[in-house]
Amino acid sequence: MAAYGAVVSLLDTVNNTILARPDDLQLQSLHEKVSFLLDFLEKCTSLRTTNQSAQQSLETRIRAVAYVAEDVVESKITGKAAYPAQDPSQIRDSADHLTESQTNVWDEYPIFPLSHLAHLLIYILIARLFDATVQKLIMVVVIQFIFPVSPFTVRTLTPVTFQNLMFVLAQVLVPLTVQILFPLCMLNFVTVVVTELMRLALLKGVSLTAPYLKPGEILIRAWFNLDDRAGQVSSSEADDSELLGIMEEIDSITKDVIEIENVNGADDRRPTRNILSARSSSSAARGDLSVGSEKNVVVGLERDLEDINERLVDSSPELKIISIVGMGGIGKTTLARQVYGDSYIYYHFDTRAWVTVSQEYSLRQVLVGLLDSAKILTEKMYEKREEELAEYLYKSLKGRRFLIVMDDIWDMEIWDAVRRYFPNDCNGSCVLLTTRLSDVALYADSLSPLHKMQFLKEGESWNLLCKKVFGEKECPHELEGIGKEIARNCGGLPLAIVVIGGLLSKESRREEYWRSLAKNLSSIVTKDDEQCLEILGLSYNRLPHRLRPCFLYMAAFPEDYEIPVLKLIRLWVAEGFLKPDGSKSLEKLAEEYLDDLIERNLILVCKRSADGKIRTCNIHDLLRNLCLRNAQKENFLYVVKYDEDVLQQDVNVTPRRLSIHPNLLSIQSEILYNREIHNSTAHSLLCTGARLIYPSRVYLGYKLLRVLDLIVVRFFHFPAEITMLVNLRYLAFTYNEALPPSIAKLWNLQTLVYHNWTFGKCPIFPVEICMMPKLRHLCVTPCSLPVPQNVQMFFLGNLQTLSEVRNLRCRDDILKRIPNLKQLGISYDVSPTGEWSEYQLEALVNLHQLETLKLVVKYSSHASESVNPPKLAFPERLKRLTLAGCGIPWSSMMIVGALPNLEVLKLRKNACKGSEWEPVEEQFCQLKHLLLEEVDLVQWGANEAHFPRLQRLIIRSCYKLKEIPSCIGEIPTLEMIELVDCHHSAVTCAEKIQEEQESMGNEELKVRIDLRRYFKNKFYSKIFH
């Protein structure tokens, strides 16, 4: 269920609102009630409930009330923070009227705070004396008349300083002045004045709007907001009434929760659980275990069977624990059945026993199942106690070489309970486990390597499909092409192939039918085979509640789409799926969630980065279809396609999230401006797939949006509606001009991804970007980041990622304002007259949390010859460093080599100058990955002592390097040497290193040679000459 994600997201919203309204007792009460429900959800995965339907119904109610509560709380935030225009078109983008001559509005409209205070006093008096219509007209006239003749000027005030000064005047000077000038009967009026002034200063965004709005406009806009806010959001009384109703529903749910917990507490004291009988478990072991098939058809397991059998009968006398691990339907049980029934294995072991554990189990039933399978069980044993059954099992195995298969084990408790009854007599006995959970397998024996099941290859998939459909007959020639496509679309998952094979074997063998089936393969498989759904659904049902929303979110991405892990993690954070842990960042917590899902074989790893971290991932089509079905069922997510508007199925549905999957390169914009989508109260809008070049219309009227991912949509004019979406946590889009200052209105924003594909231009970020304190990740195509005149104005304490920034001045006072930066990408354009001193790159050492740095230098013509290389210094925490174009001497690499935590070093395109590199011993102690690309290196005096932990060495386009030191092969951790477009002498050296290592028994070192550029140039030379 998606209830957990809904409750965690609600708590995050309530916490943020309480920070702004600490005296709101209603919100504090809501926080306490919702926290109780969260505790229940965290425990209910492990609850042994006898009424699953009641628990699921309760979780559905929790999810629904959490959605409604979050909408009410967020609507308050939206109404308070948004600009007060009745029609969004009336709001002018600040970029439209902020000219170069208006860089400081205080210069054009000089005011003195006391004068401003007088204007506010007049405003309050008019508000008390006249009706609404007259009030507006009078205030417009008064403000515009008074401002031009203000007698005093304070040109140096920043907006923040101005606001602080207003607070002082409101709290101290105003009451004192009025008490002196007015009789005591006016003191009550003073209280009203002070209250109005403080509320105005706090809520109307003076500090936010002052940098790019005329002071007169600030007052007029604030004035209109007081009267028009009821048209934007519900009144305070209505909001309070809604929250009261919500809390009454939560109280009702809480009572039911307590009842369920009481019932479950009683169930825990019962000796057994409601499960299938042991006889049915053991009989399943004796029967055919192939999924969805009457006849046992096995393809592609030959190598797996050989590996497992070798491990079972090796010479080691100790009790062996071998685990077969993989996702549901990949063939774990089928492989175990092949091993169990192998004739050699049958005669090798004295006793064999099989038990299927599954998700629901009891120790008694497992013991009975093993005794029955081993043909030891008698009728009298059924009446024995658990301890006596365990004794029977132990004695029956003692002194005998046995093979125990525990199929489909889900947790560690049952292993701890039964492990003690498997005697270790040092006679070569073995326990074979099958599980979907890597952590369970490692818990059973952390020293025994896991046998991880692999997907079938295309040829194997086609072979299995043919056997399921045609038996021993051959496939008709006209069906072979489409048949291979169907097999390929099954993604190598045996379960899918078996199910679709069974369907095809019973239906018409016409080409048209097969083609129609191939288009919607995954949905047909899960729809037409309940056993398939049941098998896959076990993994989802077993998931802890904290992981379920993260898993369901995978349906937001298209089939076979490689998902960037960094993007996925930031989306999870923005969606509010993660319960904060004070000792870890949200991003670190999300990484752990992802690792957990991977260990459960629900998410697949596609690519890894140089340091071994996961770069991209995806999900099998069948599991994605399972995600989609559950997500739509729980109103968690709806997917909209160009040729299929899912919302048309039920126009009354209001999905929480919308994901648009355009499947044509030239998609029209109607899908982004569909009237049915307008009616949605969506909190997320994602558009992934083919790049949209010319969207004419994009509807952005979702007031409660948290996530807006339109990176594939190119805007030629900035959509001003975006700045009204003040609840946004994640924003990604493509825009061909500089961002306007009004982007700073998005004060909740955590991640901003901004692409500008106007080549030759380097847009400048508005200085207001520095006043977005919740910003965590700022990822852009090269942009310049301005430095505010008053550095104290900005503090981005949460910023972790900043890339790609052009010509960043690394002053100490600037870097101290981003103390938690972990990833930085910067580039510099250097002219012949340029000086590195203005950039102060040596100050990078002050970024104490920095782990990843990419530094690129681009010289204009002949600048590299006339400008000295930069002076560099790096923080000790740095793990990944990429340098390009810096032109530093090789001797300066001592600075890099001294970094104690450096794991990845990439030197690209003249990062270093000189023909010789002599590394120093006791440096690069942790380096695992080294890339040399397009450097002028001729001699490299390296050996095993210089890079003691190196795993991968990659050399690309280093044409002058003719020799690779043979001592490199002596590095014990080295796994790969890769050469791309290198001198043939260097290639010979690498091959010789591999031969030497193989002669010494080192089979782990691989050498990869790629001369694609050489052959490409040779090919073109034949064509053009």
TrEMBL record:
GO-annotated biological processes: defense response to virus; plant-type hypersensitive response
Principal cellular location given in the protein's record: cytoplasm
Subcellular location: Cytoplasm
GO CC annotation terms, alphabetical: cytoplasm
Entry superkingdom: Eukaryota
InterPro entries: Apaf_helical (IPR042197), Disease_R_plants (IPR044974), LRR_dom_sf (IPR032675), LRR_R13L4/SHOC2-like (IPR055414), NB-ARC (IPR002182), P-loop_NTPase (IPR027417), WH-like_DNA-bd_sf (IPR036388), WHD_DRP (IPR058922)
Transmembrane segments: 137-154, 166-194
Stretches assigned to the Disease resistance R13L4/SHOC-2-like LRR domain: 702-883
GO molecular function: ADP binding; ATP binding
Cross-referenced CDD domains: Ras_like_GTPase
Chain ranges of the NB-ARC domain: 302-473
Pfam families the record matches: LRR_14, NB-ARC, WHD_DRP
Swiss-Prot/TrEMBL keywords: ATP-binding, Cytoplasm, Hypersensitive response, Leucine-rich repeat, Membrane, Nucleotide-binding, Plant defense, Repeat, Transmembrane, Transmembrane helix
Membership in a protein family: Belongs to the disease resistance NB-LRR family.
Function per UniProt: Confers resistance to late blight (Phytophthora infestans) races carrying the avirulence gene Avr1. Resistance proteins guard the plant against pathogens that contain an appropriate avirulence protein via an indirect interaction with this avirulence protein. That triggers a defense system including the hypersensitive response, which restricts the pathogen growth.
UniProt name for this protein: Late blight resistance proteinR1A-10
Organism: Sesamum alatum
